[in-house]
C-alpha cells in the first residue's frame, strides 16, 4: 500500500471506516447496556437477583449469536450484507426498548442483529493488509480504541438522557447511534475490500489457509485459551452489573457540589483505554524491536491478573465502613487497573484468534472468540446471585479470585 493511502495513523483508509462504524455501533450497544440494570431495578421493579440474571442472559446472548452469524456470513451472505442486516435489526431493537411492553422483543432483536454484525466488522480488518504487513497486529488495538470511543460517549449521552429525561429517551438515542454507524459504513464502501462474497468451493477441495492449517495441537491450545477467557469474563462482565449497582448505592458521587450520575462512572473504562492504548502499543513496538515483547499468552495472563487485583481493591474498599459512602477515588483506581488488564488480554486474544483463521473462515473464527464472551457473561449472571449472600466485600473478593485463577491458567 502506498504512503499516499495512509490516512489514519499510517493505516489504510478502510480502517478509518471500520473504526467510525464500530464507534457508533458501540455507542448504541453500550448506551443501552449502561441503562439496562438501572432500568430493570428502578422502572420495571426487578429484584437485584432477577436483574443480574436477565443482564447475564442478555450479555451472554449477544456473544452467542455471533457463532451462527459468522458462519452464515462466511457461507451465504458475505460480510457486507451481514453487517447491514445485523445493524438494522439492532437499531430496531434499541427503538423497541422505548416501549416497556417490547422489553424482551428489543433484547431479542439486539442479540440476533449483533450476531450478524459483531464477527463480520472486525474480520474485515485483516483483509486491508498483506499477510506480512507489520501494521496488521497493531490495527486491532487501533480498532479497539473505536470500540471504546463509543463506550465513552454512550454513558454521557444515553446515560444522561435515560437518568434525567426518561429511560426511553436513552434507548432511542442508542438506536440513532446505530443508524449513524450504518450510514458511515455504507458511505465508505470504496475504502473496504472490493469483494466480500463467500468463497466458492471446488468439489473435493478445501479452501487454502492463510497460514499453517489448524492441527490438533493448535486447536487444543485455542480451546485452553478459550476456557481461561470464559473464566476471566465471568468476573470482567460484572462492571456493568453488580459493580454498577454498588456504585449507585454505596459510592459518594458528589463532586464540587454536583451529583454525578451513576451511569457516568462507566465512562472511566473507555477514557482510560484512550489514555493507555497509545502508550502500550508504543511500548510493545519498542520491545518487539529489541526482541523482548511478551508472548501473547503472557500478555493475556498479566491482563487477567490486573483485573483480579482491581476487584480485590474493591473488596478492600467495600469492607466494614459503618454505613458511610465509599469515596469515589476507589472506583477511579479500580477502573484504572481494570482497563490496563483489559488492554492486555482482550485485543491480544482477538488478534490471536484472527491470525489462526483459515481462508474463508475469518468471521467464524472471530465468532468463536466471542463465544467465550457468551459463556463468560452467562456465568457472570449466575455469579450475580452470590451478591446478597456474600455482601459487596466478599463478592468482590470472589471475583478477584476467579480472575486470578484465569491468569494462572493463561500463564501456564
Q: Which CATH-level-2 architecture?
A: Up-down Bundle
Low-confidence stretches: 200-211
Largest sheet, strands/sense/barrel: 2 strands, parallel
Strands side by side in the biggest sheet: 1-4
Class from helix and strand fractions: mainly alpha
Number of continuous helical runs: 14
Distance between the termini: 39 Å
Q: Gist?
A:
The chain has 412 residues and is mainly alpha-helical. It has one domain (12-193, 215-411): Up-down Bundle (Growth Hormone, Chain: A), CATH 1.20.1250.20.
Report on the architecture of this protein.
It is a single chain. The protein has 412 residues and is mainly α. The chain has a single domain (12-193, 215-411), classed as Up-down Bundle (Growth Hormone, Chain: A), CATH 1.20.1250.20. It has 14 helices and four strands. The chain has helices spanning 13-43, 48-77, 79-96, 103-117, 120-123, 136-165, 167-187, 216-236, 242-250, 268-289, 296-317, 328-355, 362-383, 387-411; strands at 251-252, 254-255, 258-259, 326-327. The strands form two sheets. A two-stranded parallel sheet has the order 1-4. Strand 2 and strand 3 (258-259) form a beta hairpin. Helix 1 runs antiparallel to helix 7 and helix 2 (48-77) packs antiparallel against helix 13. The longest helix is centred in the first third of the chain and has 31 residues, at 13-43. The chain is globular, with a radius of gyration of 21 Å. The two termini are 39 Å apart.
Amino acid at each position: 500500500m502506498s504512503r499516499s493511502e495512509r490516512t489514519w495513523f499510517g493505516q489504510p483508509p478502510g480502517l478509518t471506516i471500520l473504526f467510525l462504524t464500530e464507534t457508533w455501533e458501540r455507542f448504541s450497544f453500550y448506551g443501552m447496556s449502561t441503562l439496562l440494570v438501572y432500568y430493570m431495578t428502578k422502572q420495571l421493579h426487578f429484584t437485584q437477583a432477577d436483574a443480574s440474571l436477565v443482564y447475564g442472559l442478555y450479555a451472554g446472548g449477544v456473544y452467542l449469536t455471533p457463532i451462527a452469524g459468522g458462519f452464515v456470513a462466511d457461507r451465504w451472505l458475505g460480510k457486507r450484507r451481514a453487517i447491514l442486516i445485523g445493524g438494522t435489526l439492532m437499531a430496531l431493537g434499541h427503538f423497541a426498548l422505548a416501549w416497556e411492553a417490547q422489553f424482551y422483543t428489543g433484547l431479542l432483536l439486539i442479540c440476533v442483529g449483533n450476531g450478524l454484525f459483531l464477527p463480520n466488522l472486525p474480520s474485515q480488518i485483516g483483509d486491508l493488509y498483506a499477510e506480512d504487513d507489520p501494521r496488521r497486529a497493531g490495527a486491532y488495538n487501533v480498532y479497539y480504541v473505536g470500540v471504546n470511543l463509543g463506550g465513552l460517549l454512550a454513558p454521557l449521552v444515553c446515560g444522561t438522557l435515560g437518568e434525567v429525561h426518561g429511560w426511553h429517551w436513552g434507548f432511542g438515542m442508542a438506536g440513532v447511534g446505530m443508524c449513524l454507524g450504518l450510514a458511515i459504513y455504507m458511505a465508505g464502501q470504496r475504502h473496504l475490500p472490493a469483494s466480500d462474497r463467500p468463497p466458492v468451493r471446488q468439489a473435493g477441495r478445501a479452501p487454502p489457509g492463510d497460514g499453517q492449517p489448524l492441527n490438533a495441537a493448535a486447536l487444543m491450545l485455542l480451546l485452553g485459551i478459550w476456557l481461561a477467557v470464559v473464566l476471566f469474563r465471568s468476573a470482567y462482565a460484572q462492571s456493568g452489573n453488580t459493580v454498577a449497582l454498588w456504585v449507585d448505592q454505596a459510592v459518594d458521587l458528589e463532586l464540587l457540589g454536583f451529583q454525578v450520575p451513576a451511569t457516568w462512572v462507566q465512562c472511566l473504562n473507555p477514557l482510560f483505554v484512550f489514555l493507555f492504548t497509545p502508550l502500550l502499543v508504543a511500548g510493545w513496538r519498542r520491545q518487539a524491536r529489541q526482541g523482548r515483547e511478551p508472548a501473547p499468552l503472557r500478555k493475556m495472563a498479566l491482563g487477567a491478573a490486573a483485573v483480579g487485583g482491581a476487584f480485590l481493591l474493591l473488596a478492600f474498599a467495600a469492607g466494614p465502613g459503618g454505613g458511610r459512602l465509599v469515596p469515589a477515588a476507589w472506583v477511579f483506581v479500580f477502573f484504572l487497573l481494570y482497563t490496563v488488564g483489559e488492554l492486555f488480554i482482550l485485543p491480544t486474544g482477538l488478534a490471536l484468534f484472527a491470525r489462526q483463521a483459515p481462508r474463508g473462515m475469518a468471521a467464524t473464527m472471530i465468532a468463536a472468540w466471542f463465544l467465550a464472551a457468551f459463556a463468560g457473561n452467562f456465568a457472570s449472571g449466575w455469579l450475580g446471585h452470590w451478591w446478597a449472600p456474600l455482601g459487596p466485600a466478599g463478592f468482590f473478593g470472589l471475583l478477584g479470585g476467579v480472575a486470578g485463577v484465569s491468569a494462572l491458567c493463561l500463564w501456564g
